[in-house]
Write the C-alpha coordinates for this entry.
Amino acid sequence: MFKIKCKFIISFFVLFNLLNTANFSVEAITLKKIYYYPQKDDDYYFRSLVDLIIFNNNIYAVENFKNNIVVFRFEKDNIVFSSFIGKPGQGPGDLQYPNRISIWKDELAVKDALGFSFYFLNGKFINKFKTFSAMPIFVLIENKIYWLNIDPKDDHLIEIYSKDGRFINNLGKKFHKIDLSLFKEFNPFYIEQIIYDGNLLTDGSFLYYLNSGFGDVIKYNLNGEQILKKNLANVFGKRGTAVLDKNRKIYFHDGLKISKDGSREYPRNYIFKDAYISGRFVYLLSGDYTPGENSPNKEISIKVLSLDTLELSKEYRILKNDVASDWVICFSILEIERTIFFIVCMHTENGYYLNLYKE
Amino acid sequence: MKKRNIRIGLLLSMMILFLLYYLYPCINLKFVNISNYVNQTNIEEFKYIYFLYGNVCNLCNSGVFLYKQENASDVLFIVPEELQSIDIDNLRRTFHLKGKIFNGNERTKELIKKIIKCERIADIKINLKVVKENRRIKNYVQF
Protein backbone atom coordinates (compact mmCIF):
# COMPACT_ATOMS: atom_id res chain seq x y z
CA MET A 1 0.00 0.00 0.00
CA PHE A 2 2.88 2.30 0.93
CA LYS A 3 4.66 1.42 -2.36
CA ILE A 4 1.57 2.26 -4.38
CA LYS A 5 1.28 5.58 -2.58
CA CYS A 6 4.95 6.35 -3.24
CA LYS A 7 4.60 5.42 -6.92
CA PHE A 8 1.52 7.60 -7.20
CA ILE A 9 3.27 10.60 -5.58
CA ILE A 10 6.42 10.16 -7.71
CA SER A 11 4.45 9.77 -10.94
CA PHE A 12 2.37 12.85 -9.99
CA PHE A 13 5.51 14.96 -9.57
CA VAL A 14 7.04 13.59 -12.80
CA LEU A 15 3.80 14.38 -14.66
CA PHE A 16 3.57 17.83 -13.03
CA ASN A 17 7.15 18.65 -14.03
CA LEU A 18 6.57 17.40 -17.56
CA LEU A 19 3.43 19.54 -17.91
CA ASN A 20 5.24 22.53 -16.48
CA THR A 21 8.20 22.31 -18.78
CA ALA A 22 6.74 20.71 -21.90
CA ASN A 23 5.51 23.97 -23.40
CA PHE A 24 8.45 26.11 -22.55
CA SER A 25 11.58 24.00 -22.91
CA VAL A 26 12.60 23.95 -26.53
CA GLU A 27 16.29 24.07 -27.29
CA ALA A 28 17.21 27.41 -28.80
CA ILE A 29 18.95 27.48 -32.16
CA THR A 30 21.61 30.19 -32.36
CA LEU A 31 21.24 32.34 -35.47
CA LYS A 32 24.25 33.38 -37.54
CA LYS A 33 24.63 36.95 -38.71
CA ILE A 34 25.40 36.80 -42.42
CA TYR A 35 24.97 40.40 -43.57
CA TYR A 36 24.15 43.85 -42.35
CA TYR A 37 22.91 46.96 -44.12
CA PRO A 38 24.06 49.70 -44.67
CA GLN A 39 27.81 49.06 -44.92
CA LYS A 40 29.01 50.60 -48.22
CA ASP A 41 29.31 54.32 -48.95
CA ASP A 42 26.56 54.27 -51.56
CA ASP A 43 24.17 52.29 -49.34
CA TYR A 44 21.10 54.00 -47.96
CA TYR A 45 21.65 55.18 -44.37
CA PHE A 46 18.65 55.27 -42.03
CA ARG A 47 17.77 58.13 -39.75
CA SER A 48 15.17 56.08 -37.93
CA LEU A 49 13.59 52.67 -38.40
CA VAL A 50 10.29 51.75 -36.82
CA ASP A 51 8.66 48.92 -38.78
CA LEU A 52 9.54 46.28 -41.34
CA ILE A 53 7.65 43.90 -43.65
CA ILE A 54 8.97 41.44 -46.22
CA PHE A 55 6.67 40.64 -49.12
CA ASN A 56 7.63 38.83 -52.36
CA ASN A 57 11.36 39.19 -51.59
CA ASN A 58 10.96 42.95 -51.18
CA ILE A 59 11.72 44.56 -47.83
CA TYR A 60 9.57 47.55 -46.84
CA ALA A 61 11.21 49.60 -44.06
CA VAL A 62 9.47 52.53 -42.36
CA GLU A 63 11.64 55.64 -41.95
CA ASN A 64 9.82 57.67 -39.32
CA PHE A 65 11.89 60.88 -39.41
CA LYS A 66 12.55 60.90 -43.16
CA ASN A 67 8.81 60.53 -43.80
CA ASN A 68 8.92 57.69 -46.32
CA ILE A 69 8.98 53.94 -46.82
CA VAL A 70 12.26 52.54 -48.13
CA VAL A 71 12.02 49.47 -50.37
CA PHE A 72 14.88 46.99 -50.70
CA ARG A 73 15.26 43.80 -52.70
CA PHE A 74 16.54 40.62 -51.10
CA GLU A 75 19.11 39.24 -53.56
CA LYS A 76 21.48 36.31 -52.96
CA ASP A 77 21.69 36.83 -49.20
CA ASN A 78 22.18 40.57 -49.78
CA ILE A 79 20.00 43.61 -49.23
CA VAL A 80 19.87 45.99 -52.21
CA PHE A 81 18.18 49.41 -52.21
CA SER A 82 15.26 49.59 -54.63
CA SER A 83 13.00 52.65 -54.25
CA PHE A 84 11.01 54.95 -51.98
CA ILE A 85 7.28 55.03 -51.33
CA GLY A 86 5.82 58.35 -50.18
CA LYS A 87 7.64 61.60 -49.49
CA PRO A 88 7.52 64.26 -46.76
CA GLY A 89 4.48 66.50 -46.82
CA GLN A 90 0.75 66.61 -46.23
CA GLY A 91 -0.62 66.27 -49.76
CA PRO A 92 -1.85 63.17 -51.60
CA GLY A 93 0.81 60.46 -51.44
CA ASP A 94 2.83 62.38 -48.85
CA LEU A 95 3.66 61.08 -45.41
CA GLN A 96 4.23 62.69 -42.05
CA TYR A 97 6.01 60.55 -39.46
CA PRO A 98 4.90 57.13 -40.75
CA ASN A 99 4.87 54.55 -38.00
CA ARG A 100 3.43 51.19 -39.08
CA ILE A 101 2.68 49.44 -42.35
CA SER A 102 0.57 46.50 -43.44
CA ILE A 103 0.38 44.71 -46.79
CA TRP A 104 -2.59 42.90 -48.27
CA LYS A 105 -2.18 41.41 -51.77
CA ASP A 106 -0.87 44.26 -53.91
CA GLU A 107 -1.63 47.14 -51.53
CA LEU A 108 0.40 48.78 -48.83
CA ALA A 109 -1.31 50.69 -46.00
CA VAL A 110 0.69 53.20 -43.98
CA LYS A 111 -0.34 54.80 -40.67
CA ASP A 112 1.31 58.17 -40.16
CA ALA A 113 0.68 61.07 -37.78
CA LEU A 114 -2.18 62.38 -39.91
CA GLY A 115 -4.02 59.23 -40.99
CA PHE A 116 -3.93 56.20 -43.26
CA SER A 117 -2.43 56.25 -46.77
CA PHE A 118 -2.75 53.48 -49.35
CA TYR A 119 -0.32 52.66 -52.17
CA PHE A 120 0.16 49.94 -54.73
CA LEU A 121 3.34 47.98 -54.08
CA ASN A 122 5.01 49.75 -57.02
CA GLY A 123 4.64 52.99 -55.03
CA LYS A 124 1.65 54.44 -56.86
CA PHE A 125 -0.58 56.34 -54.46
CA ILE A 126 -4.22 55.19 -54.17
CA ASN A 127 -5.89 57.31 -51.47
CA LYS A 128 -5.69 58.50 -47.88
CA PHE A 129 -7.99 59.43 -45.04
CA LYS A 130 -7.50 61.59 -41.98
CA THR A 131 -7.57 60.27 -38.43
CA PHE A 132 -7.50 61.99 -35.06
CA SER A 133 -6.05 59.04 -33.19
CA ALA A 134 -2.27 58.67 -33.36
CA MET A 135 -2.46 54.98 -32.39
CA PRO A 136 -0.27 53.22 -34.99
CA ILE A 137 -1.25 49.58 -34.42
CA PHE A 138 -3.39 48.23 -37.26
CA VAL A 139 -3.61 45.55 -39.92
CA LEU A 140 -5.07 45.65 -43.43
CA ILE A 141 -7.31 42.69 -44.27
CA GLU A 142 -9.11 42.67 -47.62
CA ASN A 143 -10.49 46.20 -47.89
CA LYS A 144 -10.71 46.88 -44.18
CA ILE A 145 -8.48 48.49 -41.59
CA TYR A 146 -8.49 46.72 -38.21
CA TRP A 147 -7.22 49.36 -35.81
CA LEU A 148 -6.47 49.14 -32.08
CA ASN A 149 -8.79 51.37 -30.07
CA ILE A 150 -7.22 53.43 -27.24
CA ASP A 151 -10.27 55.51 -26.39
CA PRO A 152 -10.62 55.28 -22.58
CA LYS A 153 -14.38 55.82 -22.88
CA ASP A 154 -14.87 52.95 -25.35
CA ASP A 155 -14.74 49.33 -24.21
CA HIS A 156 -14.07 47.82 -27.67
CA LEU A 157 -10.57 46.57 -28.43
CA ILE A 158 -10.52 46.99 -32.20
CA GLU A 159 -12.26 49.37 -34.60
CA ILE A 160 -12.90 48.46 -38.23
CA TYR A 161 -12.77 51.12 -40.96
CA SER A 162 -13.22 51.04 -44.70
CA LYS A 163 -10.35 52.25 -46.87
CA ASP A 164 -12.11 55.59 -47.38
CA GLY A 165 -12.24 56.19 -43.61
CA ARG A 166 -15.81 55.15 -42.91
CA PHE A 167 -16.30 53.51 -39.50
CA ILE A 168 -17.78 50.03 -40.01
CA ASN A 169 -17.81 48.14 -36.74
CA ASN A 170 -16.10 47.21 -33.48
CA LEU A 171 -14.52 43.94 -32.51
CA GLY A 172 -13.42 42.37 -29.20
CA LYS A 173 -13.51 43.76 -25.67
CA LYS A 174 -10.78 45.44 -23.68
CA PHE A 175 -9.64 43.08 -20.92
CA HIS A 176 -7.74 45.32 -18.49
CA LYS A 177 -9.46 47.40 -15.85
CA ILE A 178 -7.59 50.69 -15.90
CA ASP A 179 -7.97 53.03 -12.95
CA LEU A 180 -7.27 56.43 -14.54
CA SER A 181 -7.14 58.05 -11.09
CA LEU A 182 -3.66 56.46 -10.82
CA PHE A 183 -2.58 58.65 -13.75
CA LYS A 184 -4.24 61.98 -12.94
CA GLU A 185 -1.82 64.30 -14.75
CA PHE A 186 -1.21 61.97 -17.69
CA ASN A 187 -2.80 61.68 -21.12
CA PRO A 188 -5.46 58.93 -20.70
CA PHE A 189 -5.11 57.92 -24.37
CA TYR A 190 -1.37 57.46 -23.86
CA ILE A 191 -1.95 55.27 -20.80
CA GLU A 192 -4.28 53.06 -22.87
CA GLN A 193 -1.74 53.00 -25.69
CA ILE A 194 1.00 51.71 -23.37
CA ILE A 195 -1.22 49.12 -21.71
CA TYR A 196 -2.63 47.78 -25.00
CA ASP A 197 0.61 48.22 -27.02
CA GLY A 198 1.53 45.31 -29.24
CA ASN A 199 0.70 43.96 -32.68
CA LEU A 200 -2.31 43.22 -34.84
CA LEU A 201 -1.49 40.50 -37.35
CA THR A 202 -3.31 38.24 -39.76
CA ASP A 203 -2.67 34.94 -41.50
CA GLY A 204 -5.38 35.74 -44.01
CA SER A 205 -8.15 33.91 -42.16
CA PHE A 206 -7.84 35.06 -38.56
CA LEU A 207 -6.93 38.22 -36.70
CA TYR A 208 -4.34 38.04 -33.91
CA TYR A 209 -3.93 40.66 -31.21
CA LEU A 210 -0.65 40.34 -29.30
CA ASN A 211 -0.04 42.48 -26.23
CA SER A 212 3.68 43.19 -25.85
CA GLY A 213 3.69 44.48 -22.25
CA PHE A 214 1.44 41.90 -20.59
CA GLY A 215 1.80 38.93 -22.95
CA ASP A 216 -1.88 38.40 -23.80
CA VAL A 217 -2.62 36.94 -27.23
CA ILE A 218 -6.15 36.76 -28.63
CA LYS A 219 -7.19 35.03 -31.83
CA TYR A 220 -10.39 36.24 -33.54
CA ASN A 221 -12.14 35.11 -36.65
CA LEU A 222 -12.99 37.90 -39.07
CA ASN A 223 -16.57 37.97 -37.78
CA GLY A 224 -15.15 39.15 -34.48
CA GLU A 225 -15.64 35.94 -32.49
CA GLN A 226 -12.88 35.12 -30.05
CA ILE A 227 -11.35 31.74 -30.90
CA LEU A 228 -8.46 31.52 -28.46
CA LYS A 229 -6.90 33.57 -25.68
CA LYS A 230 -3.60 32.89 -23.93
CA ASN A 231 -1.00 34.65 -21.87
CA LEU A 232 2.49 34.06 -23.23
CA ALA A 233 4.58 35.75 -20.52
CA ASN A 234 5.64 32.27 -19.27
CA VAL A 235 6.98 31.41 -22.72
CA PHE A 236 9.73 33.98 -22.09
CA GLY A 237 10.66 32.30 -18.80
CA LYS A 238 11.74 34.33 -15.77
CA ARG A 239 12.33 37.44 -17.91
CA GLY A 240 8.76 37.31 -19.21
CA THR A 241 7.16 36.96 -15.80
CA ALA A 242 9.47 39.67 -14.36
CA VAL A 243 8.33 42.14 -17.06
CA LEU A 244 4.69 41.15 -16.52
CA ASP A 245 4.97 41.66 -12.74
CA LYS A 246 6.69 45.01 -13.18
CA ASN A 247 4.07 46.27 -15.66
CA ARG A 248 1.22 45.08 -13.42
CA LYS A 249 2.79 46.91 -10.47
CA ILE A 250 3.21 50.17 -12.40
CA TYR A 251 -0.03 50.24 -14.37
CA PHE A 252 -2.52 48.49 -12.07
CA HIS A 253 -1.17 49.30 -8.61
CA ASP A 254 1.27 52.22 -8.22
CA GLY A 255 0.31 54.46 -11.14
CA LEU A 256 2.49 57.24 -12.53
CA LYS A 257 3.51 60.57 -11.04
CA ILE A 258 5.09 63.67 -12.54
CA SER A 259 8.81 63.76 -11.80
CA LYS A 260 10.37 66.60 -9.80
CA ASP A 261 11.47 68.47 -12.93
CA GLY A 262 7.87 68.42 -14.19
CA SER A 263 8.38 65.83 -16.93
CA ARG A 264 6.02 62.97 -17.54
CA GLU A 265 7.73 59.64 -18.06
CA TYR A 266 5.89 56.62 -19.40
CA PRO A 267 7.96 53.52 -18.53
CA ARG A 268 7.83 50.89 -21.29
CA ASN A 269 8.73 47.29 -20.49
CA TYR A 270 8.29 44.75 -23.24
CA ILE A 271 7.88 41.01 -22.91
CA PHE A 272 8.33 40.94 -26.67
CA LYS A 273 9.29 43.84 -28.88
CA ASP A 274 7.75 42.75 -32.16
CA ALA A 275 5.73 39.90 -33.66
CA TYR A 276 5.53 38.53 -37.19
CA ILE A 277 3.49 35.82 -38.91
CA SER A 278 5.17 33.60 -41.47
CA GLY A 279 3.58 30.36 -42.69
CA ARG A 280 1.64 28.66 -39.89
CA PHE A 281 3.70 30.25 -37.12
CA VAL A 282 3.88 33.47 -35.21
CA TYR A 283 7.39 34.66 -34.28
CA LEU A 284 7.93 36.81 -31.18
CA LEU A 285 11.09 38.90 -30.76
CA SER A 286 12.04 39.32 -27.09
CA GLY A 287 12.71 42.71 -25.46
CA ASP A 288 16.14 44.06 -24.51
CA TYR A 289 15.78 44.45 -20.78
CA THR A 290 14.99 42.30 -17.77
CA PRO A 291 13.59 44.20 -14.76
CA GLY A 292 16.04 44.24 -11.88
CA GLU A 293 19.10 43.92 -14.13
CA ASN A 294 21.19 46.99 -14.82
CA SER A 295 22.53 46.10 -18.25
CA PRO A 296 20.58 45.01 -21.35
CA ASN A 297 20.18 41.32 -22.14
CA LYS A 298 23.17 39.85 -23.95
CA GLU A 299 20.97 37.73 -26.15
CA ILE A 300 17.64 38.18 -27.87
CA SER A 301 15.32 35.25 -28.25
CA ILE A 302 12.80 34.61 -30.99
CA LYS A 303 9.98 32.31 -29.89
CA VAL A 304 8.04 30.45 -32.56
CA LEU A 305 4.46 29.47 -31.77
CA SER A 306 1.92 27.48 -33.72
CA LEU A 307 -0.89 29.71 -34.99
CA ASP A 308 -3.45 26.98 -34.30
CA THR A 309 -2.65 26.35 -30.65
CA LEU A 310 -0.32 29.24 -29.69
CA GLU A 311 2.00 26.60 -28.19
CA LEU A 312 5.77 27.05 -28.34
CA SER A 313 7.27 24.92 -31.10
CA LYS A 314 10.71 26.38 -31.75
CA GLU A 315 13.12 28.92 -30.39
CA TYR A 316 15.98 30.92 -31.87
CA ARG A 317 18.49 33.20 -30.22
CA ILE A 318 20.68 36.04 -31.37
CA LEU A 319 23.83 36.69 -29.38
CA LYS A 320 24.58 40.38 -29.01
CA ASN A 321 28.14 39.62 -27.73
CA ASP A 322 29.99 42.83 -26.92
CA VAL A 323 27.29 45.10 -28.26
CA ALA A 324 24.65 44.25 -25.67
CA SER A 325 23.54 47.88 -25.63
CA ASP A 326 22.23 47.64 -29.22
CA TRP A 327 18.47 47.91 -29.22
CA VAL A 328 16.17 45.68 -31.20
CA ILE A 329 13.26 47.53 -32.75
CA CYS A 330 11.48 45.31 -35.23
CA PHE A 331 12.00 42.23 -37.34
CA SER A 332 10.70 40.34 -40.30
CA ILE A 333 11.00 36.84 -41.74
CA LEU A 334 11.64 35.46 -45.20
CA GLU A 335 11.55 31.81 -46.19
CA ILE A 336 13.42 30.76 -49.35
CA GLU A 337 13.71 27.08 -50.25
CA ARG A 338 13.15 25.98 -46.64
CA THR A 339 15.78 28.38 -45.32
CA ILE A 340 14.44 30.97 -42.92
CA PHE A 341 16.07 34.40 -42.98
CA PHE A 342 15.52 36.87 -40.15
CA ILE A 343 15.97 40.58 -40.74
CA VAL A 344 16.22 42.48 -37.46
CA CYS A 345 16.16 46.30 -37.17
CA MET A 346 18.73 47.42 -34.65
CA HIS A 347 19.60 50.76 -33.18
CA THR A 348 23.29 51.02 -32.33
CA GLU A 349 25.50 53.91 -31.32
CA ASN A 350 26.49 54.16 -35.01
CA GLY A 351 22.91 54.38 -36.25
CA TYR A 352 20.18 52.08 -37.49
CA TYR A 353 20.94 48.79 -39.21
CA LEU A 354 19.16 45.87 -40.81
CA ASN A 355 20.91 42.71 -39.61
CA LEU A 356 20.39 39.56 -41.63
CA TYR A 357 20.48 36.21 -39.82
CA LYS A 358 19.85 32.62 -40.76
CA GLU A 359 19.90 29.24 -39.05
CA MET B 1 11.92 125.71 -23.21
CA LYS B 2 9.49 125.73 -26.10
CA LYS B 3 11.76 123.44 -28.14
CA ARG B 4 12.04 121.10 -25.20
CA ASN B 5 8.24 120.90 -24.88
CA ILE B 6 7.95 120.16 -28.58
CA ARG B 7 10.50 117.36 -28.23
CA ILE B 8 8.65 115.85 -25.27
CA GLY B 9 5.38 116.21 -27.15
CA LEU B 10 6.85 114.46 -30.19
CA LEU B 11 8.24 111.69 -28.03
CA LEU B 12 4.92 111.21 -26.26
CA SER B 13 2.96 111.19 -29.50
CA MET B 14 5.44 108.64 -30.92
CA MET B 15 4.93 106.47 -27.87
CA ILE B 16 1.15 106.78 -28.14
CA LEU B 17 1.30 105.91 -31.85
CA PHE B 18 3.52 102.93 -31.11
CA LEU B 19 1.17 101.73 -28.34
CA LEU B 20 -1.84 102.21 -30.61
CA TYR B 21 -0.10 100.29 -33.38
CA TYR B 22 0.90 97.59 -30.92
CA LEU B 23 -2.45 97.29 -29.19
CA TYR B 24 -4.73 97.97 -32.17
CA PRO B 25 -5.26 94.29 -33.17
CA CYS B 26 -6.36 93.42 -29.64
CA ILE B 27 -8.54 96.54 -29.26
CA ASN B 28 -10.07 95.77 -32.65
CA LEU B 29 -10.76 92.20 -31.54
CA LYS B 30 -12.86 93.48 -28.62
CA PHE B 31 -15.34 95.01 -31.08
CA VAL B 32 -15.56 92.05 -33.45
CA ASN B 33 -19.06 90.73 -34.03
CA ILE B 34 -18.55 86.96 -34.27
CA SER B 35 -21.72 86.42 -36.27
CA ASN B 36 -20.12 88.37 -39.13
CA TYR B 37 -17.40 85.74 -39.34
CA VAL B 38 -19.10 82.50 -38.35
CA ASN B 39 -21.62 81.35 -40.86
CA GLN B 40 -24.26 80.29 -38.32
CA THR B 41 -27.60 82.04 -37.97
CA ASN B 42 -28.14 80.56 -34.50
CA ILE B 43 -24.81 81.69 -33.06
CA GLU B 44 -26.61 82.98 -29.94
CA GLU B 45 -27.26 79.48 -28.61
CA PHE B 46 -23.54 78.61 -28.30
CA LYS B 47 -21.55 79.66 -25.27
CA TYR B 48 -18.21 78.36 -26.52
CA ILE B 49 -16.74 78.17 -30.00
CA TYR B 50 -13.79 75.88 -30.69
CA PHE B 51 -11.77 76.63 -33.79
CA LEU B 52 -9.93 73.41 -34.65
CA TYR B 53 -7.47 74.63 -37.28
CA GLY B 54 -4.33 73.19 -35.72
CA ASN B 55 -3.13 69.66 -35.17
CA VAL B 56 -5.77 67.64 -33.33
CA CYS B 57 -4.71 64.18 -32.17
CA ASN B 58 -5.50 62.12 -29.12
CA LEU B 59 -1.87 61.69 -28.07
CA CYS B 60 -1.20 65.44 -28.33
CA ASN B 61 -2.02 68.16 -25.81
CA SER B 62 -4.87 69.34 -28.05
CA GLY B 63 -6.49 65.90 -27.77
CA VAL B 64 -6.26 65.85 -23.98
CA PHE B 65 -7.75 69.36 -23.87
CA LEU B 66 -10.71 68.29 -26.02
CA TYR B 67 -11.14 65.03 -24.10
CA LYS B 68 -11.35 66.85 -20.77
CA GLN B 69 -13.91 69.45 -21.90
CA GLU B 70 -17.49 69.25 -20.83
CA ASN B 71 -18.86 68.95 -24.32
CA ALA B 72 -22.36 70.19 -23.73
CA SER B 73 -24.68 71.03 -26.58
CA ASP B 74 -23.90 74.76 -26.24
CA VAL B 75 -20.48 74.19 -27.85
CA LEU B 76 -19.83 74.88 -31.53
CA PHE B 77 -16.80 73.30 -33.20
CA ILE B 78 -15.52 74.89 -36.39
CA VAL B 79 -13.12 72.88 -38.53
CA PRO B 80 -11.29 73.76 -41.77
CA GLU B 81 -13.43 73.69 -44.90
CA GLU B 82 -11.38 70.85 -46.46
CA LEU B 83 -12.55 68.39 -43.78
CA GLN B 84 -15.20 66.06 -45.19
CA SER B 85 -18.20 64.57 -43.42
CA ILE B 86 -16.32 61.29 -42.79
CA ASP B 87 -13.51 63.25 -41.12
CA ILE B 88 -16.03 65.14 -38.99
CA ASP B 89 -17.68 61.84 -37.96
CA ASN B 90 -14.27 60.46 -36.98
CA LEU B 91 -13.41 63.64 -35.06
CA ARG B 92 -16.68 63.37 -33.13
CA ARG B 93 -16.11 59.66 -32.41
CA THR B 94 -12.48 60.11 -31.29
CA PHE B 95 -13.30 62.76 -28.66
CA HIS B 96 -17.00 62.04 -27.99
CA LEU B 97 -17.89 65.59 -29.02
CA LYS B 98 -21.53 66.41 -28.33
CA GLY B 99 -21.68 69.94 -29.74
CA LYS B 100 -22.33 70.92 -33.34
CA ILE B 101 -19.44 70.66 -35.82
CA PHE B 102 -19.36 72.87 -38.90
CA ASN B 103 -16.89 73.64 -41.64
CA GLY B 104 -15.47 77.14 -41.56
CA ASN B 105 -14.91 79.36 -44.58
CA GLU B 106 -12.75 82.31 -45.64
CA ARG B 107 -14.55 84.64 -43.20
CA THR B 108 -13.77 82.24 -40.35
CA LYS B 109 -10.10 82.37 -41.32
CA GLU B 110 -10.28 86.18 -41.17
CA LEU B 111 -11.49 85.99 -37.58
CA ILE B 112 -8.66 83.61 -36.66
CA LYS B 113 -6.22 85.97 -38.39
CA LYS B 114 -7.48 88.81 -36.16
CA ILE B 115 -6.85 86.66 -33.09
CA ILE B 116 -3.36 85.59 -34.18
CA LYS B 117 -2.50 89.23 -34.94
CA CYS B 118 -3.42 90.15 -31.37
CA GLU B 119 -1.46 87.18 -30.05
CA ARG B 120 1.43 87.91 -32.48
CA ILE B 121 1.42 84.37 -33.82
CA ALA B 122 2.42 83.85 -37.45
CA ASP B 123 0.57 80.62 -38.29
CA ILE B 124 -3.18 80.26 -38.71
CA LYS B 125 -2.92 76.53 -37.90
CA ILE B 126 -3.91 76.81 -34.25
CA ASN B 127 -6.67 75.51 -32.01
CA LEU B 128 -8.70 78.06 -30.05
CA LYS B 129 -11.42 77.89 -27.45
CA VAL B 130 -13.39 81.13 -27.58
CA VAL B 131 -15.71 82.12 -24.74
CA LYS B 132 -18.56 84.17 -26.17
CA GLU B 133 -20.61 86.91 -24.57
CA ASN B 134 -23.54 87.97 -26.70
CA ARG B 135 -21.89 88.28 -30.10
CA ARG B 136 -18.48 89.41 -28.84
CA ILE B 137 -15.34 87.53 -27.83
CA LYS B 138 -15.15 87.57 -24.04
CA ASN B 139 -12.03 85.45 -23.73
CA TYR B 140 -10.08 82.82 -25.60
CA VAL B 141 -7.44 80.21 -24.97
CA GLN B 142 -5.08 78.54 -27.41
CA PHE B 143 -4.61 74.79 -27.04
